[in-house]
Amino acid sequence: MFKMGNRLLSTLVATTALMALATAADAKTVVRMMHQGDPGWVALYGKVAERFEAANPDVDIELIYAPHDAYNEKFSSAVMSKQLPDIIELDAPFLANYVWSGYLKPIKSYIDQDLLDDMTASNVAQGTYPIDKDLYAIGLTDSSVVLYGNKKYLEKIGARIPKSVDDAWTRAEFEDYLAKLAKVDGVKWPIDTFRGYGIKTEWVTYAYQPILNSFGCDLIDRTTWTATGTLDSQPCVDALTMMQTWVKNGWVVPMSSGTNQFYADGEPAALAWGGHWFYAEAAAKLKDDVVVMPLPKFGDKSASPDGTWIWAITTQSEHPDIAGKFLSFLLKDKDYRDFAVSQSAYPGLKSFAAQSPLYAEGGPMAVAFEQASKVAVPRPPHPAYPTITSAFMQAVDQIFNGEDAQKALTAAAEKIDEDIADNDGYPPFDGN
Fold first, then answer.
1. Does the domain at residues 30-142+307-356 carry the CATH identifier 3.40.190.10?
2. Of the CATH numbers 2.60.120.760, 3.40.190.10, 3.40.50.2000, 3.30.360.10, which one belongs to the domain with range 145-305+380-423?
3. 168-189 pLDDT per residue, tens
4. Which residues, including other chains, have CB under 8 Å from residue 262's CB and lie 6 or more apart?
5. pLDDT tens-digit map of 94-122
6. DSSP 8-state assignment for residue 132
7. Model-level pTM?
8. Which stretches are annotated as coiled coil (predicted)?
9. 170, 288, 346, 401: least surrounded by Cβ within 10 Å?
């Protein structure tokens, strides 16, 4: 009887312990984060989440991966099913639409103050909603596009190598060099503009809007918020007709040839209109033959893009304080920053800039940082942006495939204005 009592007691103790563990597990706070990214980034987020969970055993971080090309579709599905995660990664130009639609919380009260104080001006700008001027997102990085050149080809045509934004190639120089490079042995295409990214990503609008801006036009009038008369104006038509001519001349790497012809075997592309992230791969293959230059000045002024993938907390989050705690942990994580440096990530925090010698004065990517401070133009911060970018990308694709530029841009402008009208001007963007 005594032994049986011990067994019963042991069983009760064990059962109680298991129930306690189960209760503790049930009591854990789950914070869900949706993100995109290449395999290296995906693996890194998993490791950072593990470290955070070890330091905060009452929290589970659930990571939700969405492929880059399908990210916006997956986000839309989460909205429709009312299952938005606590944290989302979003492309900066979509922020105005997400805030206007009620998806995001202001973020300042949830992020560590030292990180808020550490943000560069462009980082603050890409995370700020233009109506209430509040901060809704933060990132470790920002972005830019530069013109990469293969030095051995440029030397063969005697090309001038610009060292700063003020020294950028003119349109006449740029097109003269394209024509000359087309005749150089070993060059199959003078330039890769990364058509291979397609029109399901944000690339076409992000990378080509600066050409419109340099011509003196834009995707939309940023005062009246109308596209007709702006996107289909003569300067924009001239800009896209110019690019169409490059394609017709066989100067541009076709979409079917992918996105790495600048450093692919044989180095068939002499120039690359590429993002800052491209530098790490290109330099690893071409080493000292890589030349980094500012984007050309096609009209009276230079222009470059900015804005990248940043982190926000959704209005559906039941634990925004813990979500903010994890984001702060992520942005300060040493491995996260070290990996970002290895990927030639563009600094969006001052402390990260200090860790990024590529962008320091005299560094190989210093001209990209100079563009950000002198000539960067953000994509339109308007709730209609999803329609703006979709309409423009479709128009560019049609133009590159032979459509008349005026016709394609007029149709795009009408589509944008129709969306804005259908939403009553997206008040208060309509002034009301």
1. yes
2. 3.40.190.10
3. 999 999 999 999 999 999 999 9
4. 148, 150, 192, 269, 271, 272, 274, 278, 282, 286
5. 999 999 999 999 999 999 999 999 999 99
6. T
7. 0.90
8. none
9. 288
